[in-house]
UniProtKB/TrEMBL annotation:
Keyword Signal (UniProt): yes
Coiled-coil spans in chain: none
Protein's name in the database: Beta-lactamase
UniProt organism field: Variovorax ureilyticus
Keyword tRNA processing: no
Signal sequence bounds: 1-27
InterPro entries: Beta-lactam/transpept-like, Beta-lactam_class-D_AS, PCN-bd_Tpept
Amino acid sequence: MNIKKLLRISPLALAAAMLAPWAAATASDAPAFNEAFKGYDACFLLYDVSAKKLVAEYNPGGRCKQRIAPNSTFKVPLSLMAFNEKLIDQQTVFKWSGQKYDRPELNRDQTPRSWLQHSALWVSQDIAPSLGYARVGKYLDDFNYGNLDFSGDIGKNNGLTNAWLSSSLQISAYEQLDFLKAMEAHALPVSREAIDQTRQNMALGKLENGAEIYGKTGAGRHRMRTSDRTPSKLRDGWFVGFVEGGAEHYIFVSNLTDRQAPTADDRYAGSQILKPIVMRILNDRTAH
């Protein structure tokens, strides 16, 4: 559908149709995706919740099956766990210890929303130990979340603070999609409130066409060798979430890894590279 023609349609019809261009996404998009992700091993999935099918898939070399560390996207399942266990509610304040971090927005008290919005690692490293290995492990199993390995770095006994950080816990894009599909359908074994509150805290605003976007990024170093879990200089990046406009609901999952180590002056995290690419893809598909 020519999105420009939608401007002459009634507001209700516009709301229902504004995401329709995604339905036309096929393998013919490969050249554009190849250019967008040039220099990276990458995956992009777009799933139509209403139609229950993928409407866009960029999966060169089976990339979407490759497991990598979830890094800060793990805050989504961790938030579900914490809300469900009533360890937190939306009024919870996480008290800053005074430890200084490079990003100034982390050097203050946090709320459940700012925890996700600012990707405050120190909050995650407070919550996971409060849950403990047994409860986290049960949730990972119930969520069917990747390889379920929360042991952390070999010999360091740091799973509760580091397992998801370029370490033992690994998940593929397809597995992220399945997890988000279950979350969107309220099919996870947690309360509706836990899902709704977590989703609310993922809100990022609107796309250019007015559709609501909810998401979470993640960044870390790619783990080259599974035997010793040694991170490399290659960057991993994630950007996952939901798009909602009118009667249309979509889930997107994307990740990338450097093909070559970045130069010394390239200080961008993988998520800082990936998120603008994906936002451009989403906006281009719904441009007026």
